[in-house]
Specification:
5-stranded antiparallel beta sheet, 2 domains, single chain, 7-stranded antiparallel beta sheet, globular, mainly beta, 192 residues, Jelly Rolls, 15 strands
Length: 192
C-alpha cells in the first residue's frame, strides 16, 4: 500500500520550460520510503524526477534518489514515475525536483512556496544544490508517494518474520501508519 508522503495535490496551470532542473521545497507529512514521484503532466514528454535533502538554509541539499528517463503520455493528469527509494521523515523539509525534455512535461502554479532552478541540459540530476537560483511565489505540481514507516515491520510480525520497534509504535501513535484487523488477527493464534 502506498500513500502520499510529501508534495502538493494541486494541478499545475503553467508549463515548465525545458533546459532547467526545477526543485520545490516541501515538508514531509508522513514518514516512509519514497517509491514514486507523481508529476502533473500537461504534454507528452520524457521526464525525470528526483528527491533532494534540504541543506538547513532552505536551499537544495544532496541528491537522495532519482528516476530513470520516463516517457509520460497521459496529459492533463498525474503521472507516476518510479524512484529507487529514499527514506523521508515527517516534519522534515525536502526538495522534489523535475526536468522535462518537452515544455509542459511538468507544470507549476502561482503559490507561496520557494522553488529553485538550475540551467542544465536534460539528463542525470546534479549531485547537490550548487548553482541553483531561488525564487517565489511558485509551486511545482509534484507528489512523493511511498510506503509508510513501520508498515513493513507490522506486516512482518503478522507473518511471524519480524519485530515491532519503538519507532514503529511511535509512527502508529502519530497516525502515520495504519493497522487493520487483518494485521493483528493472527498474532500467536489469538483471534481479535
Amino acid at each position: 500500500m502506498t500513500v502520499q508522503l510529501i508534495g502538493t495535490s494541486t494541478n499545475g496551470t503553467t508549463n515548465l520550460p525545458i533546459g532547467n532542473v526545477f526543485a520545490n521545497q516541501f515538508v514531509c507529512t508522513a514518514s516512509g520510503t519514497l517509491t514514486e514521484i507523481k508529476v502533473y503532466c500537461r504534454v507528452d514528454s520524457q521526464v525525470r524526477v528526483a528527491l533532494y535533502t534540504d541543506d538547513g538554509s532552505n536551499r537544495v541539499g544532496n541528491l537522495v534518489a532519482e528516476s530513470a528517463d520516463t516517457h509520460l503520455t497521459t496529459v492533463n493528469a498525474w503521472d507516476s514515475i518510479a524512484v529507487a527509494g529514499g527514506d523521508i521523515v515527517v516534519g522534515t523539509k525536502y526538495w522534489l525536483a523535475v526536468q522535462c525534455a518537452t515544455a509542459g512535461g511538468g507544470s507549476y502554479r502561482t503559490a507561496t512556496s520557494w522553488w529553485g532552478s538550475k540551467s542544465q541540459a536534460y539528463g542525470a540530476f546534479p549531485a547537490n544544490g550548487t548553482g541553483f537560483g531561488y525564487a517565489a511565489p511558485y509551486e511545482m505540481s509534484l507528489q512523493g508517494w511511498g510506503t509508510l514507516a513501520g508498515w513493513a515491520n507490522i506486516k512482518n510480525v503478522r507473518m511471524g518474520t519480524g519485530t515491532i520497534t519503538a519507532t514503529d509504535i511511535a509512527h502508529i501513535c502519530m497516525g502515520t501508519s495504519k493497522i487493520d484487523v487483518a494485521d493483528i488477527s493472527d498474532f500467536n493464534g489469538i483471534a481479535v
